Amino acid sequence: MSAKDKTSESTVTQLFEESEITNARSAAETVEPEKNTTPDLQIVKNAEDPKNQKGIALALGGGVARGWAHIGVLRALDEANIPVSMIAGTSIGAVVGGCYFAGKLNELEEFARSITRRNILRYVDFTLGKSGFIAGSRLAERLDHELGEIRIEKLGKPFVAVATEIDTGHEVWLEHGRLAPAIRASYALPGVFQPVTHMGKHLVDGALVNPVPVSACRAFEQKVVMAVNLDREVFARSSVVRSTSIELSGDEHSEVIEAEPSTWLPFNFGSNTTSKKQKLGITGVMIEAFNIIQNRIIRSRLAGDPPDVTIRPKLQDIGFTDFHMANESIELGYKQTKYELEVLADNGFMEAIS
Length: 354
Fold this sequence. Notes:
By secondary structure, this protein is of the alpha/beta class. It has helices spanning 3-9, 18-30, 69-79, 92-101, 105-114, 137-147, 179-186, 214-219, 250-259, 281-304, 326-345, 349-353; strands at residues 56-60, 84-90, 132-134, 159-165, 171-174, 191-193, 196-198, 201-205, 225-228, 309-311. Strands 1, 2, 4, 5, 7, 8, 9 and 10 form an eight-stranded mixed sheet that branches. Helix 3 runs parallel beside helix 11, helix 4 (92-101) runs antiparallel to helix 7 (179-186) and helix 6 (137-147) packs antiparallel against helix 7. The longest helix has 24 residues, at 281-304. The relative contact order is 0.16.
């Protein structure tokens, strides 16, 4: 007899009734597995990750008085319901961008439009024998009044004010601490405004090293970067002009000097012209030289790290010190941005930032 036959003939004692086994199986099928409270890092997305944010990052360039155009740019973006996920600003770009994130753009625009040739002196406190013609305390008081104790890290979105450490030439990104002093450091034009001391460092205008801070936006891994370049001329400041040497007699040279008398004033107060024939003065020459240097730096920086979109308002008739022309600057910034957005919309820009 085989083993199989023996097994079939043997008596097997069942430990459980058939009904009990069926019930146990049914209960096992209804038990839910224990939930894993540890998130799967490969599939969970961080809502704060810049890559997941909607909207655009703005790189707001320097340009002194022409910077009021940034207000018009932001108005056009708001009107088109385009969210701004980050701002990196240099000089006047830091002023406008910081006020925008702080909810003070209306106050800044009101201040800008109120400036005339006469009342600008109210905000200028001249000083001699120091590291700048203007102490900047009156403007600082105005900023402190509007921005108070607002801190950059509390703005809700990334903000960077670009400054330059004058002792070393380092590019400094101010992204923590009080907003008002950071803005002051970013617009402290060398020779005009006194440097701002921060942690033992002397900081001046960020346009010396990064006039349109696209690189700062890239460092935060923003999806779409829009640069607002306030540089006035596209080609004129990069041309090469071949000419003969200048030979003037003593009398002729004196006549040229007398025809355009100089002044030490940093702004062209009381003048009714913004042409290049205006009196430059000591700081006027400094500012124009700064403009040329800034133009070359912009070309170099943007060639190495180009933005996705560039807004370039047509500001040819507005000079560096024409703070009284805020109405014109804001309107030009608004119109140029509206035009660019219409062109971009036709090329699928809205889908790209959503």
